Amino acid sequence: MFNPCIVIPYYRHEHAIGAMVEQLRPHGLPLWIVDDGSGGTAAQAVAALAADEAAWLHLLVLPENQGKGAAVRAGCAAAFAAGHSHALQIDADGQHNTNDIPKLIALAQRQPHAVVTGIPIYDDSVPKARFYGRYLTHVLVWLHTLSFEIIDSMCGFRVYPLAEALELWAQGGVGLRMDFDTDIIVRLHWAGLRVISQPTRVTYPSDGVSHFDLLRDNLRMVRLHLRLFGGMLLRAPRWLLRGRPRI
User: Fold this and answer.
1) How far apart are CA 41 and CA 230, in angstroms?
2) Which residues of 197-210 are buried (b: 16+ CB within 10 A; e: fewer)?
3) What structural domains and CATH numbers belong to the chain?
4) Over the chain (247 residues), what is each successive 10-residue block's mean pLDDT?
5) Among positive and negative, which fits the CA dihedral 67, 124, 95, 114?
6) What is the largest CA-CA distance in the chain?
7) Alpha-carbon distance 97 to 201, whole Å?
8) Residue 235 phi/psi, 5° resolution?
9) Which site from 121, 205, 221, 241 is most exposed, i.e. has the minimal number of CB atoms within 10 Å?
10) DSSP letter string over 151-182?
């Protein structure tokens, strides 16, 4: 049974989360917000919001900051335990176009064992270094998968089939911080899931807050790509013997 919900990893986006929740309300999907150890006024703001919206908004609070991947995993696990089959992940800063939620959900319903992900169409608000830096990751992901199926691995607006995603998480090794989005989609692709892409407009970000650390997170991405390249080398002989099923 197809039973989707929404999961938001939240960390100190108190100025954007209220508007974000208002945009999500018309879609009629249960919402899990996972506060990744924000503390202070940011934690108070999302707790007050959850109290006002208790009929459909569920708040999980992690005791300390563990990273975006850990927050998404916690939200997905809670949603799955509540009977949901799929979770739409969307960022808390309001950069994603919530009007495209029905498109992603419809694609997931038609192909319930696939990952459905956005392909960002940026406006002029995107930092140019981040914009061009994404293309290096795109090329590396095509190498890691020997496939062009993952058009954009970094978009945080996507739908996971929960049973498959949680099984992969249980195996360990998936990145927990800014490496998460790329890491999990590559590993799900390795596990045999299709990746379906949907163009979506992105404004970057609505509250002017980014938690990307230029040094630490770029180093994380370098380590991630080295790990994924090694994983590709281990899998490549098997892929080449049977032929890559998807290009």
Assistant:
1) 43
2) bbebebbbbbbeee
3) 4-127+150-209 (3.90.550.10)
4) 97 92 96 95 95 94 93 97 98 93 98 96 69 80 94 94 96 86 95 96 69 66 89 86 60
5) negative
6) 57
7) 6
8) -90, -25
9) 241
10) S-S--S-EEEEHHHHHHHHHT-----STTHHH
Q: Which helix (H) or strand (E) holds 60?
A: strand 57-61
Output b/e per residue, 96-124; b: 16+ Cβ within 10 A. Answer: bbbebbeebbebbeeebebbbbbebeeee
C-alpha distance from residue 208 to each of 5, 139, 168, 203, 204 (Å): 27, 28, 33, 10, 8
Q: Which residue has the tokens 């590709």?
A: 232
Q: In the numeric block, which tokens belong to residue 214?
A: 């230029």
Cα gap 190→235, rounded to integer Å: 9
Query: For residue 133, what is the DSSP state?
Result: H
Angle at 167 between CA 117 and CA 57, to 5 degrees: 60
Q: What does pTM read for this prediction?
A: 0.90
